[in-house]
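@channel sequence for tomorrow's demo:
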Amino acid sequence: MVNHYFVLGISFDATPEEIRAAYFELAKKYHPDTNPTANSNEQFLRIQEAHDVLFDPAQRAAYDATLPEEVKRIPQVTVNVKHSRSVVQALPEQQLHYILLELICTAELDTENLPPFHLCLVLDKSTSMQGARMDMVKASAMQLIRQFRPQDMFSVITFSDRAELLIPPTLASEIRDDHRINLIQPTGGTEIYQGLALGVQQLRSMPERYMRQLILLTDGHTYGDDETCIELASAVANEGIAISALGIGHEWNDQLLDRIASLSGSNAMLVTSPKDLSRFMEQKLAMLNNTYARGLQFEFNSDPGVNLRYAFRMHPESGPLSVVSPTQLGTLLFKRSMSFLLEFSLPSLPPTMRNVNIACGQIKMEIPGIKVGNFRIKIDLSRPVKAEVQREAPPSALVEAMAKLTLYRMQERVRKEVADGQIDRATRHLHFLATNLLSQGDRELAHTVLMEAEHIQQSRRFSKEGDKRIKYGTRGLMLPSGMEPNT
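structure tokens (generated this afternoon):
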């Protein structure tokens, strides 16, 4: 039986307008007159049939009656929203408004019905990876394989200035202690796109029932293919492929890896030791084995002049998010929560205004194993507006989240100040950052910050090591106790 909702990529409760919009978008893409591929005509006919059935109320009701109950259920997700102010004041100038958005999965883990996953490792084998770094990667990869379920798939790509399929997609039960990993020999330069493209190709070849995860691991800068890497990461995000990135040492391009990972709602991480690498792999495997919903994205619209200036996922996998709709949020686990801190700038609001739409829309998600299309949760972040408001304290959870994020944003400010040549201001802010870290008991990271302040004062630039340790160290402050990266 053809699933018309899945064909159009819409939710079970989609409105006629959403059905029509999805149809026009897909029809334009697959119409045989504009798409010469072999299966475009067949796909177009499926799209046409899905639209005709779902757009007609009588046909839709008859079709819905044939669907199993599981596809009609709403996501088992609770939404908590905390605003910095319950009422926004009408002011002639711009003002900031903060929102802590939390998604809580209430569903119980059903291990019997968890779908299989395909994890593809894309490993940098350039010359700089030789020695201890490559030994660490090999050991971690072998350890990872041993923890897979028999039904899960595993593949390995190696790359330098070209990519090689070392282990094609294979059932984990068939590659225990695979010797091919131990035979990897570093050589050549670093071209990340080559590895990414071949890894994505392997994941795209898998049936839709598989959850698909790519882990990119590199220790260097890529050469001239930054934009093509970003374009590929952006494209696969809409296909349900998640990309995580690991940087070994201190020579790699953190801005590029952050961008690649965030486009699919994932994150990048600094690896300084075998412990870091093993911990990341274990956490990623645990997420794949406990996924309730994947591909979460926030589609929203706002009143004119309202802008999402900053978005940050606090937990899990803390990291910055895109401020453009749709914003990729990541993966929601059984009986776990996700939290996001959003900073909006509001325009001048006249006293006659009664309500401001800060952001309204929906969070769409795919629940593995239920092929109905996208499930969704409606989100309304609008606030009443008044000319006079009483002073109120922001919710404590929001204040705590902002306090944690402040230290990370402070290092972002210091980075910009150093780039702009404002060395005195940068070092003052680093000393302030170190003081705050010491007050929280984080002596090791505080020491790193103070050493970097001295280095910047002398050389007028960040050291490559200190830069990344401070960036990912302050980002790790958002994680629960015991999960922070080594600094």
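heads up for whoever presents: The first strand starts at residue 77 and ends at 83.
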